[in-house]
């Protein structure tokens, strides 16, 4: 498999990746950031997987049940046909809350004829450190390891357990199921109960998706991206993950391999903003509460990222025994970037706070705490905005005066002023306005490079950077501003490679990037749209959409030459930027249709 040809299933507690041939190659239980049960994705020999195997006479196709997170893999010879309906249960409980156990259900639907398949069931608990032993018991198949620490997993099935474990051929004559659970079941499952779990989960997703507006154009792409973002949200705390995986490399054979199963304030805030636009305000409110819970002290600085259960220490380790995705080592768990200083996060957080107050001012709880946070952020920005930092791309070497960080310091003060206005704190507005102007003047004078004809990556350099395109999105400049137009054109000319954008072209800690950071191309498309180059923007957008995998999913990066997906998967950042672009084009399309009908 040369591409990331996977579908994601999940229940806002954990997730699994299912290959286009129906193999579960990545799954962590009981939660997103737990050690893996299956990690073939990171080591095809020892990682472990749960595969459904058929002979070469079968054609295999895959799709999502529309507007749901139920993944359907169909096996057909023409005469013999069956489907796997993969999902992780999630639905409302009668007493409130959600039923979302750490379980995967593989519902096997018999459609036609006498299909045959074999099962390769090989869990490798605790990231495949040491040996996992699997035993056939009376009611289930148990797998356990003592290697690193004690861990277990349980498989229930309607099929012959010995045949499953031994990989013998199974004749399919009626519907059946597999249930992989982290915990032993108190009540024995059966096919009928699993069908009910399937239907309840399907209805949950249909109801959730029904809250997403319908768009005239790119509706399917918007809806699939929205469901994907929801799958990357963690119900228990309100955290939003950057991606469901660790150590999928930005470039094959290189060392840019990071663990993304955490909540980056920047990524998650952008997710919340876009998902709020789609009408899913609960994600937004829960995420706001997640942030409020993380800031108990008025002078406590925000980290750039946290664990999904609000952990503040994310110690980075390498798993030397795993060979890595297509041999790309090291495999990392944890992420040392949590210790970095990035001044942009305050602006992003203030932007989200303002957006929520603007949208839901009558029902945002904790308004007093939010006002305390706002004042605290202004204090931090006022005292630190002139300092250098690591920037949005987390350079691990020297600190610089990154333009994006300065823009977001301006954004922090601008949004704080707007929050003060909503809360009728007029004395603060007058106090904060000079600071906003001071930061803007600093950007205007020091970030612009006359020789290059653009706002550059950092003060005093000629390097261009795609993140500077977000100046307009945050309201720091107007789309009609001549400097911004020139910056968009310069970035397109310098950083575009066959329609895909580099983040930047100057060498970083690991040399020159050889893959495109997917979100940057979406930012460029959005910027072209904003400056009125709509036809060119949409042509780029259509081309970029064609690089998604077979299910419309995107990872973090795209290889410039082969166009294969690279980096952690699926990537929240990529999908939220896709939604933003798609909504812009859809609205423009609708406006043009209205104008046409008026002319008629």
Structural write-up:
It comes from Pricia antarctica. One of its GO terms (biological process) is carbohydrate metabolic process. The protein has 600 residues and is an alpha+beta fold. It has a domain at 6-210: Beta-galactosidase, Chain A, domain 5, CATH 2.70.98. It is built from 15 helices and 28 strands. The strands form nine sheets. The chain has an eight-stranded antiparallel sheet. Strands 1-2-3-4 form a four-stranded antiparallel sheet. Strands 5-12-16 form a three-stranded antiparallel sheet. It is globular and about 75 Å long.
Gist of the model:
By secondary structure, this protein is an alpha+beta fold.
* Percentage of residues in DSSP E strands: 15-25%
Query: What gyration radius follows from the Cα positions, in whole Å?
Result: 25 Å
Q: Give me the number of helical elements.
A: 15
- Largest sheet descriptor: 8 strands, antiparallel
Distance between the termini: 52 Å
Fold-level CATH name of the domain at 6-210: Beta-galactosidase, Chain A, domain 5
- Supply the CATH class of the domain at 6-210: Mainly Beta
Low-confidence stretches: none
Q: Which structural class best describes the helix and strand composition?
A: alpha+beta
Oligomer: single chain
Shape: globular
How are the strands of the biggest sheet laid out side by side?
A: 6-7-8-11-17-15-14-13
CATH-level-4 superfamily name of the domain at 6-210: putative glycoside hydrolase family protein from bacillus halodurans
Number of strand elements: 28
CATH 2nd-level architecture of the domain at 6-210: Distorted Sandwich
Fraction of residues in H or I helices: 25-40%
Mean pLDDT: 92
